[in-house]
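To assess whether the prediction recovers the assembly geometry, we first specified each molecular entity separately, as shown.
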Amino acid sequence: MRRTLISRKASLQALFLVGALTLLLPAAAFAKTEIHFWHAMTGQLGDAVNELVKEFNGSQSEYEVKPLRKGTYPETLTAAIAAYRQKAAPNIVQVFEVGTQTMLLSGAIVPVYQLMKEQDIKVDWKDFIAPVVGYYSKDGNLYSMPFNSSTPILYYNKDAFRKAGLDPAKPPQTWKQVEEYSKKLIASGAAKCGFSTGWPSWTMVENMHAWHDQPFATRRNGFDGLDAQLLINKEFGVKFIGQLAAWQKDNIYSYGGRQGTADPKFVSGECAMYIQSSALIGGFTKGVKFAWGTGQLPFWGPPYHKATSIIGGATLWVMKGKPAAENRGTALFLKFISDTNQQMWWHVTTGYLAISNSAVKNLEAGYHFKRNPDQFTAFAELTQGKVTPNSQGIRLGNFVQIRDVIEGELENIFAGKKTAKQGLDDAVAKSNELLREFAAQNKP
Amino acid sequence: MSAVGATRVDAVRVDARDRLAPRKRPLDWNAIVVHALLVSCIAVVAFPLYYAFIISTQDLQQVVQRPPRLAPSTHLVENYVEAWRQAHMGRMLWNSAVMAVTIAVGKIAISMLSAFAIVYFSFRGRTVCFWMIFITLMLPLPVRMMSTFEVVGTIGWLDSYQGLTIPLMASATATFLFRQFYLTIPNEMAEAAQLDGAGPLRFLWSFLLPLSWANIAALFVVLFIFGWNQYLWPLLITNTEAMRTVVIGLEGLIPRSGTELPTWNLIMAGAMMALLPPVGVIIFMQRWFVKGLVESEK
Amino acid sequence: MKRTVFRNRWLPYLLVFPQMAVTLVFFFWPALKSLQLSLYRVSPFGDRMTFVGLDNFTRLFTDAEYYASVVNSFIFAGGVTVIAVAAALGAAALATQRIRGLIAYRTLLLWPYGIAPAVAGIIFLFIFHPAYGILPYFLSFVTSYEFNWLLKGWVAMTLVIVATAWTHFGYNIAFYIAGLLAIPASVLEAADVDGAGPLRRFTAIVFPLVSPITFYLVVLNMVFAFFESFQVIDAVTKGGPGGATEIMVYKLYKDGFIGLNLGSSGAQSVVLMAIVIGLTVLQFRFAEKKVTYS
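The predicted structure of the complete assembly is given in tokenized form:
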């Protein structure tokens, strides 16, 4: 019997152990931390989100972001709340702009600026476009990362313009011109109606007030306190909406429903002009058969001054209560999507606004806007004017229901059931009630 | 009770009427008018479906053209394929089928067991159970939708098959139906079974079950359609596309926020796919269906 | 007569357990939760709950929109019921005349019941579409009135009522055919001998004889339309335009699920519960009356 220093059994055991460790260790090293990202994007936008996430996942080996479409914006928010209450919230959730106040006061989020500070990640906050980040900032600090922002612009049918004897390179710049052009378009048979709109409250009430430097609500549009009240039934609101209602009678304006249900009116050529989100540029490029262009929002003129338009869309919020390791991944992902290269890619692919000035500069330098002048219209609206307290954004509680109330009353006004003053007064009364309820619900 | 025998009586009565057929006149105007009215009824009722089918065979240009075309076109296959792809129909049809069958089978199974217990046993709390089941009639889903959603969330069943099916499985009507039926079974049968030494479960399995097949089949058809056409509950409970049912998924094909333009031909193709299974069930199993409807509403 | 029962101590409990479990967990617990929530003001994320007593109820009962939703619910339920029941009675009466093809006719009129109201709603949405729909197109030859459901509340309400009645009509026919066939031939023969025409026979004899069924179906249809109406509204009009088709169940969903106001939706649930109890009592009263006549 041979004597060995280590018994055979022992050496086999050692071999086994070493073998096992060699197999397990790399596995442990390869286990990526998962970051769950809930969003509401469908179709091409959903594909773009997946692309973006894939880029990030491929660029490093510690974290894997897992995107999941949870339904529409309200459904995604409700699902996130339900999950949060079960202590199973995602890391990142996409919430629409009207949910901002709810998220801010929820106590369930980690502000983005705080996250970046904790993780010691440098972000050039000054580089972000002011009207875009202003909507989501408190005391100059950014609370959620803008993701898919857009602003309403004017689309117009160049072929119809030509047929009506109008210069196809010159979209109307004032509301007077809109009226004039519409009349010509209808008279020449180039279109059945002058213009229509999408997201009526966002385009015709919220944005029009901001564009004309009129307050939408007291307390700096709600930024300064929960006791804000609406101001849309003042002189400007009544005048403008009243004008829309009058135009509705002559088909100069043709109401087509909420959200995007009026899109077919423009695409089919029924209405020659259309005011809707700048995010439609991509879809229109594919689906519209006639020559079209864009212009800035029409302006009323004196006695009003032009400010800027306000944005719409959604942002990414970071949920509280997640382990530190995951928070780092979340922070890195948010930094990634706000980087210039990603911003440029996102804008070119989806049509949503790039949120940093350097991204815009780079796009300019790359002649992107020369080749796609329409994509610059939105930026122009946000950056060429001066941001005033009335045009920095709107921050109200129960804003989802308030929009619903406003759009309901607009429908009453356009159907001729109420006068503009009456409808707007009712909208303000109901909205103020909703604001009071929210304030009571969220007493600190 | 008269409605129970109705479907069996159907056949008898129809024969009787034929025998009492109108006196042989060269042209029975009465019958002609009646037939004509009925046919026009059917035409009116069938028109929406016919129109939906037509649209599902056209391409978008034809859909929007004026005057509208009322004859089928040639794009049937490509539309259905595209709608299938876009809405992930395969998965959704599967989810609907799973939901419908599970709810139907589940409801029947647990109602049968409860009814059996209530009728054939005398135990403490029997009356309480009976009344508790009865009270569920007063709590249809819309009345408790938010809180049931919360409860399911607490259990962790959101976005799952269990969450989709189990909360819908308690049914007072099915229980009462079985109870009613068991009460009509003559006492002697149960006595004989006991004498034979058969336990209650044996009795249920070998005696009651075979007798109840007609009821079960009828109920299954009605509940399958009920489960397939559920909307509110799947809407609340499911978020991810992988779990959605076809009835909800169809509503999602109608774009309401601007970037996508509505493709009505695809939407109608989707609608056809969503409604063919339950309508098919009614057409092919209509005898069972009518029996089930009439029985379960007593 | 004493029923034969089996003697087992624990088996019956085991047998009723599944149903009791589901009933307790998914019916009673949520119902109690709704009751509780209705007395609180809850923040959307659930972290703040303040007891407010009947405040949610007073807000509800002083809200004009709530009353509007109640009215809309009854208009909707009533419209669906009237159309579905009347049309069913007429068609069933025709089908049970002395003609062949009863089963065929019944099948051909029954099948829409298999269509989910949401799907029916989508089909009718297209039929009523102001730009592409076939109905406004044909109506445009008759009148220049614009049947735009996006602006005109009554058109929207008609849309959803017609879509729902369409699906529910087959259900009523099944009942009516069964009931009409149960009328003894002798009664109808007697009317014939008396020289009564078919219309007279119908109004004087048939209609009164099936009136128990009619009452029963009316209550049943009202309950169904009241509570299953959610899907057609959500798929088609989403309560618009301007709240014209906002029914109670839809408002509950909007306030609770989208508006995240759990206290108010709790209060609305409690009110709905009270209504169901009332309607169920009605339903059972009529069910007893419906069945026996000879």
